[in-house]
Amino acid sequence: MENKKSPGKIIVETLSGIFLPVINLITAASIIKSVLILLVSFNVISVENGIYRIFYAVSDGFFYFLPVFLAVTASRQFKTDLFVSLMIPVAMLYPDILAMLEQGKTFPFLCFTVPTAVYHSSVIPVLLAVGLLKFVEIPCEKWLPEVIKGFTKPILCMLIVLPFTFLIFGPLGTWIGSGLTKLFFIIYNWNRIVAGAFMGLLIQPMVAIGAHWAIVPIALNNIATQGYDVIMPLLAGAVYGQAGAAFAVALKEKDKMYRQIAIQSGFTACLGVTEPALYSVNLPKVWPMVWGCVAGSLGGALAGISGNHCISFAFPSVLTCVAFAGPGFLIFMLSMLLGLILGFVFTLLFYKNGLGAGMPEVNEVNEPGPKD
Question: Comparing C-alpha atoms, which of 145, 130, 117 is closest to residue 69?
Fold first, then answer.
């Protein structure tokens, strides 16, 4: 008798099936963006240069429209109608709606008000929406007459799925991010070392669900009003904790292809872009993500000791460290190194085969699901 899969294993395999088909694109876009940032940092090209504009558009544009790509892979994983699934991110990323909600404006919808949310580069809203679509399509396929199913099914699906998307799924990341940010400032006013450990532990899970975008306007406002921000320096250890965990997986992984993916994603994390490491390696395998977060927490605590400030907005990395120049800069740099080393060592020592250790074959997850 075949062993029944645990809920945890089902979730891990589902996430792997959704992210693995696009992981090479995530890595490629991250490398292009990192190289461009490096070229600008060394004054090889300027941001007005046509080369920079076009290649930054394709690299940043991929992450901007990530919900569209995830709608495709989630549709394959959940076995929903691909084109109906694509109607969801099309509505989410429609310029008129996107501009209003991301500028903090709201508008009425049915008997409710649509909350503000960040939809570009988001992950959770489109995955939950396509998952809901799976259950909405079942009665549509069963009960709608064939002669009208072609056009009535998309209408009925959108009538049900879109209200949930804009009223619940979309704002979810913003609500989580805002709540954690408020809690951070309470802790920071009490003890900045504990606050550093708090943010170092939670920031990468926030990135994974898109909740980290709630921090960006707060950091920008801090710089505009005070001339500095205290949040961003505390995130450095977490970035490099995920990089270290990815490198450790590369060392322990037997499959040549996954070793290559882990090395590539660890490299891009060192350049400040952690999404490849999160989505392709650490999150699907679970425990590397956990140990990377633990390392990030300790690195964040060290950055809290430094009292370092960010004088211009930047996500922390070796490429953007000039933005963190000032008091406590050396300890800030050491927090990156600490996160990298501990993420690597913890994962190397404690990561064992088990929950999330196995990953489905790429040729499996790239295949469309069978037709109903």
Answer: 130
d(C-alpha 29, C-alpha 228), whole Å: 30
Contact of 187 with 162, CB cutoff 8 Å: no
Give long-range contacts, CB 8 A cutoff, 24+ apart: 177-180. Answer: 177/206, 177/211, 177/212, 177/213, 177/214, 177/215, 178/214, 180/206, 180/211, 180/214
Buried b / exposed e across 70-103, counting CB within 10 Å, b at 16+? bbbbbbbbbebbeebbbbbbebbbeeebbeebbe
Question: What is the dihedral sign for C-alpha 346, 351, 355, 358?
Answer: positive
Torsion of Cα atoms, 10 then 12 then 16 then 19, to 10° = 110
Q: What is the 3-state secondary structure (H, E, C) of 177-188?
A: HHHHHHHHHHHH
Is residue 360's pLDDT more than 80? no
pTM, rounded to two decimals: 0.73
Residue with tokens 């980290």: 212
304-333: pLDDT as tens digits? 998 888 877 778 888 778 788 888 899 999
Using 50, 70 and 90 to split pLDDT, how confident is the model at 8? low
| Distance from C-alpha of 285 to C-alpha of 273, rounded to nearest angstrom | 19
User: What letter does residue 234 receive in the DSSP assignment?
Assistant: G
pLDDT at residue 332 in the model? 92
- Give the torsion sign (CA, 65, 141, 131, 268): negative
Confidence of residue 102 (pLDDT cuts 50, 70, 90): confident
Residues 6 or more apart in contact with residue 312 via CB below 8 angstroms: 223, 323
SS3 120: coil
Residues 55-73 have pLDDT tens digits of: 999 988 988 898 999 999 9
Cβ proximity of 170 and 276 under 8 Å: no
- Beta strands per DSSP E along 78-150: 107-109, 112-114
Question: What pLDDT score was predicted for residue 316?
Answer: 86
